[in-house]
Write a structure and sequence with these properties.
The protein is α/β, with parallel strands linked by helices. It is 42% helix and 24% strand. Strands 10-9-8-13-11-12 form a 6-stranded mixed beta sheet. A 4-stranded parallel beta sheet has the order 2-1-6-7. A 3-stranded antiparallel beta sheet has the order 4-3-5, with helices on one face. A hairpin with a 2-residue loop joins strand 3 and strand 4. Helix 3 packs across helix 4 and helix 5 packs across helix 6. The longest helix has 16 residues. It is globular and about 55 Å long. The two termini are 31 Å apart.
Length: 278
């Protein structure tokens, strides 16, 4: 049997993972001395409520080799083949931890491609991997197909609240103040496994238009689903989907809530989409 593993940075809900038959392993978010496993010890709502009160950003922690060693031993003994789709190696040591554990256990039945993605772009790859399994592909074939898709994954998202980029040192206080006064939203993407700013827009409607233009330049493939993600702003998500209705029409859409691992860095207010380009 083929098993699919991911981690909580994919922002698929536990219920959706259960529907897909995917096991989601928890990354950890630490508020000072308090440690929470994402989606287990703290819900997304509770996370954003707690985040709003802090003067210093929480820290996120990768999954350890010891934790993976225990999981991989079980799968080696069961004889199941496993595809692991984890957060980009450029953002976390989680994949490296998994590779160390695989070597320690000698588990040749475990596939560990580097997704180079996170949040709803990673969730998209997990969704597609589950479909591949339904079509009867082996673990090795799924890993190979996913690796072929990775260069075609596109994520565009706006950042609405610059407070958390400033707290995280990704934006100077002066730049954050000026941008906030002018209502400027940075537009981000994922490039070579890292988050990059690709543009700025004045106001959400302009940000929506910017993302629409990016989709027009790199159109959505008709062969795959689309994920729409948001960080505690369902109305922004719904407004964005209305704005993008022509591009999203007759497509399989999955709505994801950006959780504590990525939300630590974006704060509330982020919204965007991920897809496989033609």
């Amino acid at each position: 049997m083929v098993k699919i593993l991911t981690d909580s940075s994919c922002d698929l809900s536990p219920a959706r993972c259960e529907e897909l038959g995917v096991e989601m392993l928890p990354l950890t978010v630490n508020f000072g001395e308090e440690s929470f496993r994402a989606n287990i010890d703290i819900s997304n709502d509770a996370f954003y409520q707690k985040l709003a009160t802090v003067s210093e950003l929480p820290k996120t922690a990768q999954i350890t080799p010891a934790f993976f060693e225990q999981i991989f031993k079980e799968y080696k003994e069961s004889g199941d083949d496993v595809v692991c789709l984890f957060i980009s190696s450029q953002m976390s040591g989680t994949l490296q931890s998994a590779r160390i554990a695989k070597n320690l256990v000698g588990a040749d039945n475990i596939q560990l491609p580097d997704t180079l993605n996170v949040t709803f772009a990673l969730g998209l790859l997990v969704e597609e991997a589950a479909k591949m399994r339904e079509r009867g592909l082996s673990a090795a074939e799924i890993a190979s197909e996913v690796e072929a898709l990775i260069p075609r994954v596109r994520l565009w998202a706006l950042i609405d609240d610059l407070k958390y980029l400033k707290m995280g040192g990704r934006l100077s206080a002066t730049s954050a103040l000026v941008a906030s006064i002018l209502g400027i939203c940075p537009i981000i993407t994922l490039e070579n496994g890292l988050v990059e700013v690709v543009g700025k827009a004045r106001g959400k409607k302009a940000a929506f238009k910017f993302m629409q233009n990016m989709v027009e330049k790199e159109p959505i493939s008709n062969d795959f689903s689309v994920t729409i993600g948001h960080a505690a702003v369902p109305k922004t998500r719904d407004d964005f989907m209305d704005f993008m209705s022509a591009e999203l029409k007759k497509r399989e859409i999955h709505k994801l809530d950006i959780g504590s691992i990525v939300g630590t860095h974006t704060g509330p207010g982020a919204c965007g989409l991920a897809y496989i380009r033609k």
